[in-house]
Design a protein that fits this description.
192 residues; alpha+beta; three-stranded antiparallel beta sheet; elongated
C-alpha cells in the first residue's frame, strides 16, 4: 500500500525545513528595522541637539539684582535678555497716587497691585521698552524727564507713563511690560 506524505504548514511545529526559514526571515526583518532605527536616531540626535540654546543664551536667561542700594523714589536701569529693565522703589506718596487713579479710565487697565508682587508693592519692575515702537523711555536715570505723571516719558513719540508705568498719554497702546520675576531674598530679585 502506498503512503501519501502531507505537507506540513509553516508554524505547525515542524522540526526542520520551512519553519526554520520563517524564523530566519523574522530575525532579518527585526534586525533591519532595528538597524534603520539606530540610523535614524544617529541622524536626528545631532539635528535636534543643535537647536538647544547656547551657553551665552542660557546665561542671559535670568538676571539677579540686588535692590538694597535703591533708595525710595529712585529707579535704576539694568539689562535683561539684552533689553533695558527699569526697577523703581516707589515712595508711599507714589503708591498712593497710583492707587487713586480710577482703573477704568486707563487705556490698559491694571492696578499697581497687579503690576507688583504681594508684600512688595513699593518695588516696580518693568521692561524699559516703550510699547509704541520700542524706544527707551526716560525717567529711570537721575535728572531725566519723567513726564507729567511722574513715571516715564518716551522721547520718540511722546508717550507718558505714570508711577506704576501705566500708559496715560500718547500713542503707546499698552503699559510697560512687567517681566516674570520673584524675590529670592527680601532685597534680591531674580528676573526670568
Amino acid at each position: 500500500m502506498a503512503t501519501v506524505d502531507t505537507p506540513i504548514a509553516a508554524g505547525d511545529g515542524a522540526p526542520h525545513g520551512e519553519d526554520g526559514d520563517y524564523r530566519r526571515r523574522d530575525f532579518l526583518s527585526i534586525a533591519a528595522v532595528a538597524f534603520g532605527g539606530v540610523g535614524v536616531a544617529g541622524i536626528l540626535v545631532p539635528l535636534i541637539s543643535q537647536m538647544a540654546p547656547s551657553a551665552d543664551v542660557l546665561a542671559d536667561a535670568t538676571t539677579e539684582l540686588d535692590l538694597s542700594a535703591i533708595a525710595p523714589g529712585q529707579a535704576i536701569k539694568a539689562s535683561f535678555r539684552k533689553q533695558p529693565l527699569f526697577v523703581r522703589n516707589l515712595t508711599p506718596e507714589e503708591i498712593a497716587e497710583a492707587n487713586k487713579v480710577p482703573v477704568a479710565s486707563l487705556r490698559d487697565p491694571e492696578t499697581l497691585a497687579q503690576r507688583t508682587k504681594e508684600g512688595h508693592t513699593n518695588w516696580l519692575v518693568t521692561m524699559g521698552v516703550c510699547t509704541h515702537l520700542g524706544c527707551v523711555p526716560l525717567g529711570a536715570g537721575e535728572g531725566e524727564v519723567k513726564g507729567e505723571f511722574g513715571g516715564y516719558f518716551c522721547p520718540c513719540h511722546g508717550s507718558v507713563y505714570d508711577t506704576a508705568a501705566r500708559i496715560r498719554k500718547g500713542p503707546a497702546p499698552k503699559n510697560l511690560m512687567v517681566p516674570p520675576y520673584k524675590f529670592s531674598t527680601p532685597t534680591t530679585i531674580v528676573i526670568g
